[in-house]
Amino acid sequence: MITTAFTILILPLLALASPQLYGPPPPPANDPTPTSASVAVAAAAPSAPPDSPGQMNVDVGFQETFTFHPSNFSAPNGTTITFFFPADLQHTVVEGDPTNPCAPLAGGFDSSLTASSQFTITVTDDTRPVYFFCKVLTHCPAGMVGVINENKGNVTFAQYQAAAMALGNTQPSVDQNNAPITGGIGAQATAGPSSDIASAAPSPTSGGSGTSGATRVAVTGFLGLLVVVMSAMLAL
Ligand SMILES: *[C@@H]1O[C@H](CO)[C@@H](O)[C@H](O)[C@H]1NC(C)=O
Ligand SMILES: *[C@@H]1O[C@H](CO)[C@@H](O)[C@H](O)[C@H]1NC(C)=O
Ligand SMILES: *[C@@H]1O[C@H](CO)[C@@H](O)[C@H](O)[C@H]1NC(C)=O
Ligand SMILES: [Cu+2]
Q1: Where is region (Disordered) located (predicted)?
Q2: Which of 16, 34, 50, 73 could form a disulfide with 143 if both were Cys (CB 3.0 to 4.6 A apart)?
Q3: Which is higher by pLDDT, 36 or 161?
């Protein structure tokens, strides 16, 4: 029984240890509505819980596609928006510059690379749009972008996404290994991502907001292997 408990506990950790599960992102296409196809393949249930008053939840890597869900929505001042990151692949949520797709907005928030975690922003100015994208190489040009309060700006979600996809391999090079950046313009983060699995498996990696996502995954993967060995020994 102890072994079973251990096994259940380490499953998400093992998933972290092998992050490349989606296959390559779809090649950048001229299709102006790239999300419609992936949404039509409704299969796995989203991991984010339903919204509640003043609280919205966004799935990152929705149904193992390079999308945010929802990706185009409005939210008044004070709304907290929590991004739910999957276990199987690292992603980011970075505030974007609408005039420069797949590039960060100066002064914007940045979750940094993360998996199996949550990252929350609060809308502080609903009179302006807030654009966001995933800066992991190839994800943004695959259409992994979103906007809050699109109707307050001049660049629609569809335009922003089409511009991102048109970049193809010419995606701006962006630092992938920085620590999370709090603050933001129009919406603000007050902390970096918090781990979903922290309560289930307290580890030296929890609370390491300055640790890079890559390091976190490496350390977590190592701990996962350690637990596997321990459970195997217990089973004998
Ligand atoms: C939301 O907050 C911003 C910044 O304080 C303010 O300018 C704006 O009027 C507020 N929106 C509403 C609907 O009150
Ligand atoms: C949208 O365009 C109008 C007119 O060019 C400009 O005044 C306004 O500042 C723009 N809004 C944003 C959010 O860029
Ligand atoms: C995005 O949302 C706005 C309303 O907030 C809506 O008018 C628009 O059609 C949506 N765009 C897409 C591509 O769904
Ligand atoms: Cu991503």
Answers
A1: 24-56, 175-212
A2: 34
A3: 161
Which residues' Cβ are closer than 6 Å to ligand 3? 72, 74, 150-151, 157-158
Residue 150 sits in a domain whose CATH number is: 2.60.40.420
* DSSP single-letter state for residue 198: T
Which residue's alpha carbon is nearest to atom 5 within ligand 1?
Answer: 125
Q: According to the model, what pLDDT value does residue 26 have?
A: 53
Task: State the distance from the centre of ligand 2 to the C-alpha of 131, rounded, in angstroms.
Answer: 15
Is the Cβ atom of 77 under 6 angstroms away from ligand 1? yes
Mutating to test ligand 2, I would choose from 154, 155, 157, 160 the residue with most ligand atoms within 8 A of its C-beta, which is: 154
Task: Answer yes or no: is the C-beta of 170 below 6 A from any ligand 1 atom.
Answer: no
pTM of the model: 0.72
Number of domains in the chain: 1
Residue 28 lies in a domain: no
Domain encompassing residue 172: 45-188
Cis peptide before 12 (omega within 30 of 0): no
| Diameter over CA atoms, the chain | 65
In a domain, 124, yes or no: yes
Distance CA 87, CA 195 (A): 10
Which region among 1-10, 153-162, 177-186 has the lowest average model confidence (pLDDT)? 1-10
* pLDDT 10s digits, 74-131: 999 999 999 999 999 999 999 999 999 999 999 999 999 999 999 999 999 999 999 9
Pocket of ligand 1 contains residue 209 by CB under 6 Å: no
**Nearest listed ligand to the Cα of residue 105:** 2
- Number of Cα atoms under 13 Å in the Cβ half of residue 23: 5
Say how many Å lie between the CA of residue 231 and the centre of ligand 1. 54
